[in-house]
Records
---
Amino acid sequence: MILRTAEKIGLSLEVDDKLLNELVIIGKEHYPNEFGGFLVGNYRDDNRHLHITNMILPKSFMASKYSFERSTKGIKNELDKYYNETPKKFYVGEWHTHPDNRAIPSLTDISAINTIIQNHSACLVNPVLLIIGFPRTQVDLGFYVWFENKLYKYEQS
Amino acid sequence: MSDRVREINTKIESIPDVKLVKPFEQGEFDINGSIFIFIEGLEQPLKFDVSILPQYPFRSHNTETIKFYNEELLEYKHIMGNGSICIHTAHSPMLSEKLDYDIASVKSWIRKYYINKDIDIHYEHLIVPQKPYKDRHYAFFFNEVDYIFTKNQFGFVDYSIINNGIFYIEKITSNILQTYYDRNKKLLTDVKWNFQLKALNKSSGLFIFIKEAPSHNHRWVFNNWDEFAALLPQNFLNFLHTTQESYQKDTGKQLPLFVGYNISETEIHWQVVMLEIGNFPIYGERVNKQWLTFLDGSKAVFWAMTRNCSYKYFFGRGRLNEKITNGKILIIGIGAIGSVVAKTLLRSGCTKIDFIDFDVKEPENVCRSEYNFFSGITNKTDDLINQFCLISPFFEPTIGGYNYSEAFDFLLKSHLTDTTIKSDIEKRLNEYDLVFDCSADNDLLYALSQLNINSTLLNLSISNHAKQLVCASERNRYEFITTQFNGSVLKFDIDDLYNPTGCWSPTFKASYNDINALVQFAIKHINLRFERDKALRNFVIENDDSDCLTFKPKEF
Amino acid sequence: MDKSLHLETVIRTHQITKEKQLLEKHIQKKNEVKEALQENFGCNIYSPFNSGSYAKNTAINTKFDFDLVSPFKRNAFGSNGTLKEMYEAVYDFLFDKYKIEAEVKKQKVSIGLEFYPDSVGDRIKIDVVPGREFNQDQYKDDENLNLYVYYKYGNFAADSERIKTNVQMQINNIKDRADKEKDSIRKIIRLLKVWKNTKYNYPTKSFFIELITIKAIDNSDITGKLWDKLKTVLEYIRDHVNNEGFTLKDPGNSSNDLADTLTDNDKQQLANDMKNMLERIEENDENIKTYFPENPKFKEEDKNKNKYGTNGGMPIPPPKLNFGLEK
């Protein structure tokens, strides 16, 4: 699946359907609790296109129907492994689920994004956020990117 | 003699041109006495019996607690049925000062209505005794109709009960007049009310237009049927007879009779007499081998209350400028801002108001918008239409409703480049004189700014904590609003938004009072522009609560 | 923000050459109307010419002023023919010819042709201004014309007055001044037109804006960057337009006063608008975008420059992160 942000900022994102399906299935397994993890990928086309290639599941987390807290404990090796591949792959953002709700970022989600960009060792200027909403029986996907102090939604291209 | 009685007697004697005829004495409740009052222009002083109630010098139920009676003055203006004159004087907590005011007021009544026989410009309604008919009072509301009645025209009417209430300590039923028919039940004219009122169950009544007021001195409504003798034509008495016969199965039930008369060349007023089926004030007598109907003059007339609820009286105490009230109005978005705008316009005389909103009302909306808890979860449009029908008998929604709202949003946003659909939307919007966009939807704002419409389009939005209200009214509305809200012009707090449990769209924090204060200020500003015939400009109203609260309007 | 830089961008996005197709459609339609008039009125009409902002090189691409001045001979409608007869004859002809494809409207001194949107939604608008030479065959020498006032035009009463002017001289005056002082006059005129276009039905004519800009520049000390110059003109209008005795002489006829094209209320509103605009921009630079917006159609996008940022090094996720509703 290839997505684009609003015309305004002209950034695009690509994610393999297989990877996306995998995330949806994992998310469903944790229903009715929230769940999530790390997104890995790299930038192409002169840094205008993001390709999400892999994900890392957290080894340590706490979750309820309305909250999800993950830690980075035990994932360092995996991050290193991806970074040493050619081309390099690295941490590009986060994903999590919204059980019984739509894929719209909450204030907590936005404040999480703020934590990422303010964290200097993250070195991530434009983190992406994938929310998988499970309103009723459907699946609602929302990809967002933080760009110049605003959260933009990617749209289907 | 108590101090109070003594004070009254002393004071009265000290007032010039006033003489004690019978000194004041304490009665069971009131203090009573008689006085002469003289003013220049009188041949001799006028005598008044005076009663002073225990509350005096305070007023009670908005009336003075001192009464000046003289039954010989009944034919004059501003005299109550018991012969007391109608006065309203300035407030004073001091008995002697209040007596000065009240005597001065009686003197001015004498000059105005007794000596000069002034006629007031405004019409004074007949005095109708407010007595219950059987176990309850009845009130009938009527409205101007576009029909000219001729003298002695009579027939049937339909009316509907709108509420059973309590009138002080007695029961009361309020009704609206719905339709006039001729004596053969052919439609004459329909009384205009909102669609929900029109849909109420109907009962029958009668009407006769007698042209002259059923009164003595244009003041006192008739008490007995014999007073009607000269006004009711024979064919109407026959009509009463045949009607009573045909309603035989309803014997004992009431049948209101609307009696109409002119109060000016163009204006009609209706009074209602409660008739009891089987007990009409008529009797039959055989004259020259023929049965004729006669009026039974000995019977008392039972009057109900009537109110003229036509537009000019209903909104008589205040409304917005005619350019707004006469206009057809569309309100897009009836949340916290839009519902307040809508209700303000409705109460201020607007009648043609449509809404667009595809949202559903939740209990948490009630605290700061014009919705009620009682109606539970329901579409905002439907809820507001119901409520508005309860408020204004003249409310006329034409479109709106949930389906229309969905279609509007979809067509506007998805077909902005389709010239046929775009021009169809433009045509529909052009039917409105005023369009309020209170949706706080930037996509809609953009889409609307792309349309070529002649309606006055106003976008209203509020920043967090109701710090500012932004109103766009010009062609550059999109640039204006986005510039105001882009974070570098208006200073407001965006971190502290209200995040309702289980819902993923945060909303701004502000109370009903916060929002209403700004919205009312904005509507007042807009109204003033219309009143002064000035072009509307974009504006921002900012509230500054650093010291004393102020609202600062800034025009762009 | 740099206000002058913004204003330069506004002017760039409003360049008429950016709307080539629409411009060409206007020119083509104008020529068509011109030929139709010539064919119909034959030797009674001189060659109609464009007097709008395009001719004066002060046009912006969001609103095309195409004014087609149509000079008639003195006796075109008989030696006793009136200006009203001229105006009506031109209206009748245009109405008959264009009623199917356009809305034909009687305007203050012109007849407006508003063509219905074409297949791509473009609307072409041309105003035909009928004028009559003073004396038979005199136009060739002096280019003077009498215009008919159809309805109340500022302080000019309807039907009771005629406007005498020399349109060619009007064009040349503005064109010459603007050519000489390219940087100031033309830019400011264009900016004021952009501003006027942010309002609905603003009563000032483009010609009024052109003349008042020139007058402001002649009477003030215009220095500094573009914003400073514009500001001086705005202040001049604010302080003078509503003064008693303020005049704007028509370069085509010095006895015409363009200030008379506005009512006292209009002038008061114009002065107020200038005052509000100056105050709001003073309060916050950003407000300049409201008054002088870029043409969104040609907004200079920097979207192509946007990239995902990297700070170098391997990005490491923050150790603990919360998602969901509970903080």
Note: Strands of chain C lie at 49-50, 67-72, 102-106, 111-115, 125-132, 145-148, 162-165, 249-250, 253-257, 320-324.
---
Amino acid sequence: MSKLVSLSEHPASPPKTELSKPAAKFAKRRAIRPYLILAPALLLTVGILIPFFSAIYLSFTDFTLRSSSYTLIGFDNYTSMFQNPDFWHSLTVTLEYAVICTTVEMLVGIGIALLLNEDNPLSRFLRIVLIFPLMIAPVIGTLIWKLMTNPSVGILAGPMRLIGLGDFKWGAAPDTAMFSLILVDAWVYTPFVIILVLAGLRSLPKSPYEAALIDGGSPWFVFRNLTLPMLAPVLLITLVFRLMLSLQEFSIIFALTEGGPGDTTMSLSLLAYNRGFPFYDVAEAIPIMLFLWAAVYLISFILIGFWRKAQARAAGVA
Amino acid sequence: MKTGSSFFQLLGQGSKTFLLLVYALFALFPLVWMVIMSLKPDNQMFSTTFIFSPTLENYDAVFLRSDYSRFFFNNLCVSVLAVVVSLVVGVPAAYALARFQFKLKEDIAFTILSFRFAPEILVILPLFLIYQKIGLYDTYLGLIWVYQLITLPLLIWILRGFFEDISPDIEAAAQLDGYSWWQVFLRLLLPLVRPGLVAAGLLCFIFAWNSFTFPLLLSASNAQTSTVVALRFLASDTVHYGQVAAAATISALPEVILALLIQKHLVRGLSFGAVKG
């Protein structure tokens, strides 16, 4: 492969020692070309991230939107964040939300993918239509669930009364708010797990299964010792994506409960939003998000390490 | 013995189908119900479930008698233009990452990817201040720019995979025939990656269209998009539930159609090329 690449890059260039002056210039232009091609894309995205560095600076000041002057106060925003019980509460909420959502979506998603990995009309139809919840905006999805759980027009009020849960208040009561959020998150993102796992299942090689069939392994044995290790890379990358995004989830929580009732579902994103926007304490909000950002990166870095290992191992199995 | 095992096979098949149908009901019923609600007249909203006299009056009210159409148009403009900008700068970038060998290549690629996973609120907090200072707050340009964080990493990573699938020999042959690099790129490579290009572009559009946090906090009455405004429908004093459902349906419909068009490439797109579907 690398041989082919170098061939395409220097189709007819003479050996280096014989470079004439224009040819040397040409080679130099070739060397910087990839950077030139990449420059606009990097400028556009890095340009938008320059504010990121000003954010780090602001986090060491007492900046608020209420006054125009501010002074450097060192690590005060950081120490007060760690001393604030609201922060620890929000951290718990964030972890609870992310861990439960990711677990539920992974388990249900893998299960449904295994069921859909068969060629019959029902599976073929469902493989297409099940992605709809994933494609529409999470906020619109949340809006639909808000309507469905609405006590006056919602369709769920009747059935809930039938099973004796007539006073189930969904997002409006402290003890059911988290459940409602997880339900909506699972509705939106389980299809993500399904279609990635399905793609992984369909790319598995056939021959190990034929061998296992001859050896007479039970379905569970085959799943545990063949499917799972070969599927591990896909499962891990799916896990990384789901965990990264559910740790940061803002729009579903904002649309359904706004962090409420009280602060029962106040995740770190919601906490930072509340500090930064209605209350204008931008300098206090930034450390919260920097903490979340660092945590997300650390977790995904570790998981991507596992992913690389799993890929190598899966290549060995196959 | 034989009848016994086929009985259990039948039972197994039956329970599989049952589980699939339960999940399908969970996944699809809300969407069906949204469409039903959007067709219900206000006076039958509370008294009926499935049997009612359907009407388009909610769509009429949302689209023609409110300014929702303006926000819908905003969303369309901002999303399309964001994808166009991403295509212009992203396609060559994806090519460079696929073909050239150069220092820091993987670092640059992962830096671009990491933008997609920067917490949106963290980006927005300082951007909110700066946008207000330089006049980009509540403008198309401001949103198009910040949407690059969503669309550009996605586009570059999907297309990189598609470019890598093309044998470099084809290019080398064309270059030996005397075509310049640009000619090879435009006449040969772009047509070859067109399916990937279409899929990546449409997926970028879907994600830009779905964006909520950026337009919520970086735009106001002028450039606000339909996703943000749809939520506000429910918060208004006199709630017309049918209109909320109609607004949601209008916002969801284009994506359902686009999703059907790109389903073949969806896996690759959603996993940033990590899983090849």
Note: Chain B is about 75% helix and 0% strand.
